[in-house]
UniProtKB/TrEMBL annotation:
InterPro entries: Glyco_trans_4-like_N. The keyword Transferase applies. The lineage of its organism: Bacteria, Pseudomonadati, Pseudomonadota, Alphaproteobacteria, Rhodospirillales. This is Glycosyltransferase WbuB. Residues 39-221 form the Glycosyltransferase subfamily 4-like N-terminal domain. It comes from the Bacteria. Keywords: Transferase. It holds the Pfam family Glyco_trans_1_4. One of its GO terms (molecular function) is glycosyltransferase activity.
C-alpha cells in the first residue's frame, strides 16, 4: 500500500502536545472523509490525522468520495484509490451509489450499498476488529456496522453529528412508518455502543427522549486551530458576505437569497459570495437569476489546503439553517469561522445550540429563522462597524483555542476510547 510523504489537500500542522495516553490503534467507520470538503468530512479527517500524528495506528473505513456533489469524484470510480495511506492514516474505501435528489429511497440505497460493503470487508478480513472503534452518524448504519468491528473487550464510541430521524421528520422526508423505523434503528444501534458523543446539549436531550440510555458526552465541533487561523482580508475586494458549504435543503439557503435582496438596499457596495456545491446548486442559481440579484456571486468550494485563505475573504459569514432541524444538528462550519477570527450571522431558535453558544461568547449575531430582512440588517450592522466585528472575531478565536482545538478534542476522545466516560 503506498504511503504519501506529502499531504493531499489535508495539511497537518503542529499543535500542542498530544495526550500522554492514546489507544495504540483506532478504527473510524464513517461515510464522510477526505477529500470531501464539506459536512462532517473535514472534522473527521482532522480527528483521524491528529490520532495518527500522535502515534496511533489509524484506519478509516469510508466511501468513495461523493459529497456534496452527489457524484463519485474523478479518479475514484474505478477503485484505484480504494486503499491508500495519507498523512499516516490508512484509508479503506468502498463502493457506493450517491443519492440523486435527496429523497429517502435514494439515501437508503446509497447507505445500504455502502454498509453492505463494510460488512463484506469485515467478513473477508480486509479490515480487522479493533479494541478502539469510532463511528460517525450520519449514517446510523455506520454506528450499527461499527459494532461488528469491535474486538472482544474493546470500546466503541459513536459520534452523532446528525440525528437522522429528527432531520428526516423536520425536512418532510419519508412517512410516519419510515420515521419510526429509523428511530428504532437509531435507538438500537446507539444503545449497543459503549458511549456516544454529540455536539450540543440539545442533541443529547433529543437522544435521551428517543430512548438512548448509554453515556452521552458533549464535545463541540472542533477545528485544527493551527491550520485555520485569522488572516488579513484580500486587498481591493468589495465588502464580502460569505456562505461556504453544501448547497443542501437543511441549510435553508432560500433565505440567504432573500437576505441578499434586502442587503443590496442597505449596502449596495457589498457582495454576497455563495461558495459551495450540492443538489440545490442549479435551483439556487436559477432562483438568483429570476430575482435579478446584482450582488450575488456563485463559486466552487475552495481546496482544503487554502481553507484559511478562503475564509479570510468573508468580512461577515453566514450560517443559515432550517429551524426544524436545529435541535438535530450543530453546524461545524460555525466553529471553523470562529477559528478564522471572523464574525457570522446565523439563524437559530431560542435555546438551540447556536443560541446558547452565542450567549456564552458573544462572537456572532443571531437572527430568527425565515427573517431575511433581520438577517440583512445584522449583516449590514457588522459591515458598518469593523471595530465591533474585529472584537467579535477575537472572542470567537479565543473560545476555539480553549474549547474546540485539535489537542483538546483529541484528549477527550482518547479518554473515551480508553474507558474514561468522564472525559
Amino acid at each position: 500500500m503506498p504511503d504519501d510523504s506529502t499531504p493531499l489537500r489535508t495539511p497537518v500542522s503542529e499543535g500542542p502536545a498530544a495526550p500522554a495516553i492514546l489507544p495504540p490503534s483506532v478504527l473510524l467507520v464513517a461515510m464522510s472523509y477526505w477529500p470531501e470538503p464539506a459536512g462532517s468530512a473535514p472534522m473527521m479527517t482532522d480527528l483521524a490525522t491528529a490520532f495518527a500524528a500522535a502515534g496511533t495506528d489509524m484506519t478509516v473505513l469510508t466511501a468513495r468520495p461523493n459529497y456534496p456533489g452527489q457524484a463519485i469524484y474523478d479518479g475514484y470510480a474505478d477503485g484505484a484509490e480504494d486503499r491508500r495511506t495519507v498523512n499516516g492514516v490508512r484509508i479503506e474505501r468502498l463502493l457506493t451509489i450517491p443519492p440523486k435528489g435527496g429523497g429517502m429511497k435514494a439515501r437508503l440505497i446509497h447507505e445500504g450499498v455502502l454498509h453492505a460493503g463494510f460488512l463484506a470487508a469485515r467478513a473477508r478480513g480486509r479490515v480487522a476488529p479493533h479494541k478502539a472503534v469510532l463511528s460517525l452518524c450520519p449514517s446510523i448504519f455506520s454506528v450499527a456496522v461499527a459494532d461488528r468491528f469491535r474486538a472482544p473487550g474493546g470500546r466503541h464510541i459513536a459520534i452523532v453529528h446528525d440525528i437522522q430521524s429528527g432531520l428526516a421528520g423536520a425536512l418532510g422526508m419519508g412517512g410516519g412508518a419510515a420515521l419510526k423505523a429509523i428511530q428504532a434503528v437509531e435507538r438500537t444501534a446507539l444503545n449497543r455502543a459503549d458511549g456516544i458523543v454529540v455536539l450540543s446539549e440539545a442533541m443529547a436531550d433529543v437522544l435521551r427522549d428517543l430512548g438512548v440510555r448509554r453515556p452521552i458526552t458533549v464535545i463541540p465541533p472542533h477545528v485544527d486551530a493551527d491550520a485555520v487561523r485569522p488572516l488579513p482580508r484580500p486587498e481591493g475586494q468589495p465588502p464580502t458576505v460569505l456562505y461556504s458549504g453544501a448547497f443542501a435543503r437543511k441549510q435553508g439557503l432560500d433565505q440567504v437569497l432573500e437576505m441578499a435582496r434586502h442587503l443590496h438596499a442597505l449596502r449596495p457596495d457589498a457582495r454576497v459570495l455563495m461558495r459551495g456545491q450540492g443538489g440545490l446548486e442549479e435551483e439556487l442559481k436559477a432562483q438568483a437569476k429570476a430575482m435579478a440579484l446584482p450582488n450575488v456571486e456563485f463559486a466552487p468550494l475552495i481546496p482544503s489546503d487554502r481553507l484559511g485563505e478562503g475564509l479570510a475573504e468573508g468580512d461577515v459569514h453566514l450560517v443559515p439553517q432550517r429551524p426544524e432541524g436545529a435541535a438535530f444538528a450543530m453546524p461545524g462550519k460555525a466553529v471553523t469561522i470562529l477559528a478564522a477570527g471572523r464574525p457570522f450571522v446565523c439563524t437559530c431558535l431560542p435555546g438551540s445550540a447556536l443560541d446558547r453558544l452565542g450567549t456564552e461568547i458573544d462572537a456572532f449575531r443571531r437572527t430568527p429563522p425565515d427573517a431575511p430582512e433581520a438577517m440583512a440588517q445584522a449583516v449590514a450592522e457588522l459591515l458598518n462597524d469593523p471595530a465591533r466585528s474585529a472584537a467579535m472575531g477575537r472572542r470567537g478565536r479565543a473560545w476555539v483555542e480553549g474549547n474546540a482545538s485539535r489537542s483538546a478534542v483529541l484528549a477527550r476522545y482518547a479518554a473515551l476510547l480508553l474507558g474514561d466516560d468522564a472525559a
